[in-house]
Design goal:
mainly alpha, 2 domains, 14 helices, binds fe (ii) ion
Length: 420
């Protein structure tokens, strides 16, 4: 038995999404024509919603644990109704936004295989956007008596969103080169995986049923990103690649802070749990994510070390990588500059816990201070950021917004605690 059934949405919104695709993603037609050539064992791509099964009929977390899940949005009361809408809206915005981002640098893919993979990722993100539209569209109770038509209002807004006005910052950053496609699939899609995983318990059943089919597709996105990052890392090591380790590292430094912020304030998330929308709070999910993304980069480092040191086993390479990074010394010809790392969670943050946002932390999580121990001011931190972020990224609106926020804040006060 298939793990899911399929549904389409009302012709009005189905056609609106097809029109959106023609405008924002015309390359999809090439993928559809060639699907069986590149993916002979995969069922041909189709734009529909996949309705999976619930792990339990009852709500599993929060205030209403044990009660049946909500089938109708209109049965959710007060804040719960609008919080559910906000989560579905944000999810849909990420799906559509990422297509707009990937497309900017699609043609720069170093290999055909990379380009085809990105096309498939984009097509699947479109299906995920469609899936979120289905959640709104199939349930007439999003139109509650005395309220505006929340479903229509939200879908219409989503169809007009461009880079710059998507819900989450990570989806407003334009891609500059193919490194962005790769680092994004590796690190930002991985945040997506955590969100979908957590939302399997969603107390509003249609959202919960949407998660498993989306998750299995996300596996491909993350897997592609990791494979390509490995290829690029090895390419940099052998000098045959397009990007240097320093360039790859700078792209990682730009994306990871925005990925961490997608979880929301690390002290928050209790409301979503109380409503039974998620099974973990923000801080727990964020730290699990952080460990996973570090592991991903360590595996790339292992391959880099094995490229540099002949006939080395993977476990030996892993020990070598750790030793090089812990001691900051060159060992067996492998130096810290040959390897990649994930910046500390406190680095370059503008959302989250008050004591870390806009604070001058370096990539290793050390506070950059003046001689007297006082944290450096905004201008000095900006100069530091310029040395560890990609040049092109510094010209984006995203960075301008950070800069404004940083310089607009009052100078750090001595005596205040700046710890993690
Ligand atoms: Fe997705
Ligand atoms: Fe994805």
């Amino acid at each position: 038995m298939a793990a899911y059934t399929t549904e389409t949405i009302t012709p009005k919104y189905h056609e609106a999404l097809v029109a959106w695709q023609k405008k924002n993603f015309p390359e999809m037609e090439f993928l559809e024509r060639n699907w069986s050539k590149y993916y002979p064992t995969q069922t041909p791509y189709q734009l529909f919603a996949k309705i999976g099964k619930l792990s339990s009929d009852a709500i599993q977390y929060g205030r209403m644990a044990g009660q049946p899940r909500f089938e109708k949005a209109g049965d959710m009361v007060g804040n719960m109704f609008y919080t559910a809408r906000d989560i579905i809206r944000a999810q849909a915005s990420t799906e559509l936004g990422s297509i707009q981002q990937h497309r900017l640098t699609l043609e720069e893919a170093p290999t055909d295989a990379m380009k085809i993979s990105i096309l498939r990722i984009m097509a699947e993100e479109l299906r995920h956007g469609y899936q979120m539209f289905w959640v709104f569209d199939h349930d007439a109770s999003w139109r509650k008596p005395g309220h505006p038509d929340v479903a229509k209002e939200t879908m219409d807004e989503l169809l007009t969103m461009q880079l710059g006005n998507h819900v989450l910052d990570a989806f407003n950053i334009p891609f500059f080169n193919f490194l962005d496609n790769v680092i994004f699939a590796t690190s930002i899609d991985l945040v997506g995986k955590y969100q979908l995983e957590m939302q399997k318990v969603f107390s509003y059943a249609p959202m919960a049923r949407s998660m498993s089919p989306m998750l299995s597709e996300e596996g491909y996105h993350i897997g592609s990103g990791r494979g390509f990052l490995k290829e690029l890392g090895i390419g940099a090591t052998t000098d045959r690649g397009r990007y240097s380790i320093e360039e790859i590292q700078k792209a990682i430094n730009a994306w990871i802070p925005r990925g961490l912020e997608m979880f929301g304030n690390e002290r928050g998330g209790e409301t979503a749990m109380a409503f039974g929308f998620k099974d973990r709070n923000n801080g727990t999910a964020q730290s699990e994510y952080y460990s996973e993304v570090r592991e991903v980069v360590e595996l790339v480092n292992v391959e880099i070390a094995r490229t540099k040191v002949k006939d080395m086993t993977a476990p030996d390479a892993r020990s070598l990588v750790r030793e090089v990074q812990d001691t900051a010394e060159t060992i067996q010809g492998v130096s810290p500059r040959d390897l990649l790392y994930i910046p500390d969670p406190k680095f370059f943050r503008h959302r989250g816990m008050e004591e870390i946002i806009f604070m001058p932390y370096d990539v290793h999580g050390n506070l950059i201070t003046e001689d007297g121990g006082r944290p450096v001011g905004g201008e000095k931190y900006l100069a530091y950021l310029k040395s560890v972020l990609p040049d092109y990224y510094l010209a984006t609106k995203d960075f301008a917004k950070y800069r404004e926020g940083l310089l607009g804040r009052e100078a750090p006060q001595p005596g205040k605690s700046y710890g993690w």
